[in-house]
Fold this sequence. Notes:
Chain A is built from four helices and three strands, in the order H-E-H-H-E-E-H. By secondary structure, chain A is α+β, with helices and mostly antiparallel strands. Chain A starts with a helix and ends in a 6-residue tail after the last helix. Chain B folds into two domains: 4-69; 87-165.
Amino acid sequence: MTISKDLIAASATPLVLSILSHGDSYGYDIIQRVGELSDGGMKWADGMLYPILHRLEKKGLVESYWGAADNGRKRKYYRLRKSGLKELNEQRKNWHDLYAMLQKLEGGSVCSI
Amino acid sequence: MFDLDHEIQSWCRSVSTSVWGRDARIEELKDHLYCEVEKLEKSGLSPEQAFRQATEGMGSVEELAAEYSKNRNAANLICDKIQETEEGLEQIGNAMSPKKAASLNILVSLLFAAAILLASFFLKDSQYAQHADVVTFSLIAVWFIPFSILSSAGAKQCKNKTAVVD
């Protein structure tokens, strides 16, 4: 599975919010989860996730706090806020609607040129 | 000999200077870099190879700067400044004992009081006498900055100590 850059950018917010809806997490873990979910097909440049997380935080969709890793290293965790959950539900609906449209086109009318 | 900690520090410094001009948010990328290096080392790479591969995976400094620059509209810059202040307060709070913060607070307050008295004294009979009130109120307003920082630092340390005792 290879996903275009545009689609990666468009799907970043719902994916991050969705991962955080399962529990608090941190940047590296989020990237690993996305890699696993896409079977390695979705490759984010590692440094790109952080500005996205910061934007989500500034929008009030997530909140962050500093914690410590098992080895004591300082680590920033992110938590989904209520407004983030609301946004996630809206985005999920949009993606479902889009998918339904594509399915209708695939299984329904034939487009002849 | 390859010194991983030194290399990671250098990388973080160069990114931090280019992208933000300060170090506050670099801790997050540093943790990421260590996680990736550890994973690559487990897969059999040497620390140096792991470091090179991990930093390549982060994207170039230019790419990072471009991505972060999307966050920099006026509203976000204000949020950044607030966040910087909060981080600064946290650092001061962590570094200063409540007693020291209180002493410094009293000292700063006395200095401001002296400045207000001196300003009033010298302005009283001068041609700028009508501006004396403005100067006084400005000094009081400025005094609130160190006062609130030091009060917050002292309160934070007290809170931390109470939490430890609890």
